[in-house]
Amino acid sequence: MTLVSVTSEDVKRIAGFLECSSDEVIQRYTSMDLEVTGGRILRQVDGACIFLRENRCTIYEARPKPCRDFPHTEIRERSLGGRMASQCLRASICPIVYNTLERYKRLVGYRPRRDSRRSRPAGPDATRSSQQE
């Protein structure tokens, strides 16, 4: 579960997109951030953002800054988030990363490699038995 902090600017942008008041966005779609005094976070429904439907953001054009910045891969940023391996790990929590990786795999013709070693039992006995064959 990823908590998304929202600022008053984020709330205004979401309200404009949903054509409702900022107060309504706060009441219906956010909850208090227990870690930040006066802070708000987007509500979660079944462990996911309230605005996530069928693995897509329903307020994409008005999404909060943390979502716009995610997965935090700015070229100048020196963090693990700027590395490709880190991005692959994020695919399980971010539909944008997941969909991008899937498109890339289709583009380059990726096919999972069949590894014959995986079908053999592991351990020292397995090595001896495969050498005797």
Key phrases:
6 helices, about 10% strand, single chain, disordered C terminus, two-stranded antiparallel sheet, elongated
What does this structure look like?
There is one protein chain. The protein is an alpha+beta fold and 133 residues long. It has 2 domains: 1-69, no CATH class; 72-110, no CATH class. Helices cover 41% and strands 12% of the residues. It contains 6 helices and 7 strands; from the N terminus they run E-H-H-E-E-E-E-E-E-H-H-H-H. The chain has a 3-stranded antiparallel β-sheet. A two-stranded antiparallel ribbon has the order 4-5. Strands 6-7 form a two-stranded antiparallel sheet. Helix 1 (8-18) crosses helix 2 (22-29).
Concise synopsis of the structure shown:
The protein has 6 helices and 7 strands.
Helix and strand topology:
Layout: E1 5-6, H1 8-18, H2 22-29, E2 30-32, E3 40-42, E4 44-45, E5 48-49, E6 52-53, E7 56-57, H3 65-69, H4 84-90, H5 95-108, H6 124-132
Antiparallel strand pairs: 1-3, 2-3, 4-5, 6-7
> How far do the termini sit from each other?
49 Å
- Large-scale geometry: elongated
Q: Total domains, how many?
A: 2
Give start-end ranges of low-pLDDT stretches.
75-81, 123-133
Give the strand content.
5-15%
Let me know the average pLDDT.
79
Specify the number of helices: 6
Strand tally: 7
Main sheet characteristics: 3 strands, antiparallel
Helix content: 40-55%
| Class of secondary structure makeup | alpha+beta
The Rg value, from CA coordinates, equals 22 Å
Spell out the helices and strands N to C. Answer: EHHEEEEEEHHHH
Strand order of the largest sheet: 1-3-2
